Amino acid sequence: MNTILLMDLIKPDPNIAAVLPEMIVAIAGILAMLYDSFVPKQRYVTGAISLIGLAISAIFLYSMWGDLPETSWNGMVANDNLRMSFSFVALFVSAMTILVSSVWIDREKVPVGEYHALLMFATFGMMFMASGNDLVIMFLGLETLSIATYVMAGLRKGDLKSNESAMKYFILGSFASAFLLYGMALIYGATGATNITEIAAKVASPNFPALLLVGGAMLIVGFGFKVATVPFHVWTPDVYEGAPSPVTAFMMAGPKAAAFASFVRIFVLGFPLVASVPAAVFLHESWITALTVMAILTMTLGNIAAIVQNNVKRMLAYSSIAHAGYTLVGFIGAGMAKTPEARDAAIASVAFYMLTYAVTNLGAMAIVTLLGQKNDRRTEFEDYNGIGFKSPVLAFSLSLFMLSLLGLPLTAGFMGKVLVFRPALEAGNLMLAVLVVVAVVNTAISAYYYLRLIVVMFFRERTTDWTAPKIPFAIGAALVIAIAGVFYFGIFSNGVIEKFSKSAPIQSAQVK
Amino acid sequence: MSEFNLFDYAPIGIMFLVAMGFAVSQLLVTQLVGPRKRTATKLMPYECGKDPIGSARDRFSIKFYTVAVIFLLFDIEVLFMIPFAVAFKELLNQEKISGVMFGTIALIEILIFITTLIVGYIYVWKKGTFDWSLQSRAEARAEAKAMAKIKRENVIELKKAA
Questions:
Q1: Is A301 in a helix, a strand, or coil?
Q2: B29 in reach of chain A (CB within 8 A)
Q3: B1, B90, B101: residue with CB nearest A4
Q4: With an 8 Å Cβ cutoff, is A479 touching chain B?
Q5: Sequence-distant (≥ 6) Cβ neighbours of residue A339 within 8 angstroms
Q6: Which of A240, A293, A366, B58 is the most buried (most CB within 10 A)?
Q7: Any chain B CB within 8 A of the CB of A3?
Q8: Rounded to a whole number, what is the distance in Å from the CA of B129 to chain A's nearest CA?
Q9: CB-based contacts of A341, cutoff 8 Å, min separation 6
Q10: CA B75, CA B81: separation in Å to the nearest integer?
């Protein structure tokens, strides 16, 4: 009875090198946790441990770029450019968050070891969402990320707003996870596979059950929640406003990028257009149309709602919804791309957009954190009245970040927008052309609220006394990196884009 | 894979109907047939069969939740260990036959798993989760101090009187 037949065993396919970056981040998190439990009085050591771990991980990630087998661990972990570029974004966001949060850690007396350990585990989850080539791995990554983020949103235990934020995020996030999981189960039921490559092969077969459509719809709901698209965005403003500012900065850039990585991989690579099969054409058309409608709604509602906000964090939350809409434009462009090269370029543009958004947004949130004071009290527009000439460094950098979010030429935001809009235009489809027009009109609308902050800072009188805060070293470093990034990605973006879009052989094998 | 056909899923629908019908019919039958006698005992709030000892609005320590979490930790450890223990010998056998490292990989994986759990264990230990009496010990110490103080004052008063 108790025997195992050799044929029942799946041949193990371990490739430690392929998951080394993820492992290093996880080990850094565990070390931070252990160090904190033995030396509870420390303030900075766990942050240093985390930064070192992230740096080592980034070095390994860079060195293995392009010279690894296409998939490893029996096809569960992919090593394509999609994974590499989004993992790099995750590492960058995490490192910047550590720098930005240093001032907040001092001010609020947060349990620092736990905070850094949770941040590392969240990064680990984000990296696995980017590298997973299997629905199960993606879901595990998503849950690791989400659970860590729920706790981080509620780290200010004494503050009711923070509690509310964590509670809302937890309940709605679990709800979305349930949708996602059910969608994955239905897709598994329809295709008999959880591997993206195998699912893509099954979609190309002439007969596939309608369950696949239902499963895809549920995945759109789940991921739509995670990247905050209309109509699944309602949690975003409350959660982003209530969470501590550095955690908000992390949530705006990190989980959104990671969710886009999985989202793009499942839909663009898993549900490709197979022109000869009517069912696959129908599936492809359905998700493209659904996402187009969502993108238009997301951009419009995000921008219009941002206009009427009086709180800077809330304004940035709605702006983050709008940016999810812009990113969807590139995503849809990737779905409509006619050649594998064009598709890889479009996917790279999505990754690049998330990178530019992360750079700009983390810089802006660093200043919001610094000006926010204890419990993030000073986050209304009025609190920025007339600080322009009293603290020129902060005001000019914040203005630069606002212009980059708006997408002014020479800044990172401009290059990001050009790159995500281009693939949609190149598809030569009327619907996508309308989408791009809506996106451009929305960019014009967004000028109102981004410029409003600049106007408030430089041209309003301040009624109360205000002294410019001293810029601590870590925040200064984060600002220098963000400003350099905004200009570097805005002017010399070629190298990064080429690196991101160098086509990997695995993907060209999938489109038939 | 065959064409999608709704009637293939009819058994699931029937199962739902049966489940709902069962629940509804049971409630109906007890409502209609069952005798109804209200006694004092029956109207008491149910508390695991014991007589209630007070209001449920009392404040009580929720330390048990940390214990529950740690219990879950070790529960899941056992859940993974048993299948590993059952399969391990056979995996080693297969390793000898086929030359693929089934057994070695299984052993390394379970060791990594246990290491992660032990790290969690060390963490909760150092954070004082197992030190339940921390508060009561502090209270007892404060009480002892107060008593010592009263005693000292009494001694001083006695000396004065003497």
A1: helix
A2: no
A3: B90
A4: no
A5: none
A6: A366
A7: yes
A8: 12
A9: A503
A10: 10
